[in-house]
Amino acid sequence: MNTSCNECGAGLAVPDDAIVGELVSCKDCSSEYEVAEISNGTALLKAAEKVGEDWGE
Ligand SMILES: [Zn+2]
Prior knowledge:
- The protein is an all-beta fold and 57 residues long.
- It has one domain (2-47).
- Helix content is 0%, strand content 40%.
- The chain has no helices and five strands.
- The chain has strands spanning 2-4, 11-13, 23-25, 32-39, 42-47.
- The chain is globular.
- The N and C termini lie far apart (28 Å).
- The protein binds zinc ion.
- Residues 5, 7-8, 10, 26, 28-29, 31 line the site of zinc ion (ZN).
- Zinc ion is lined by residues 5, 7-8, 10, 26, 28-29, 31.
């Protein structure tokens, strides 16, 4: 599925089997996003916080 970068507007490809919490990065501006929600085949992204700190819980 495709969505777009909030920062630069470039298209972002999200794997069709992506899950909530999956990280994607923009190849144009290198912004990192986390899949916040998937609805009707569309991934909603939120800006990724620092990666790798508190995983789990
Ligand atoms: Zn971008």
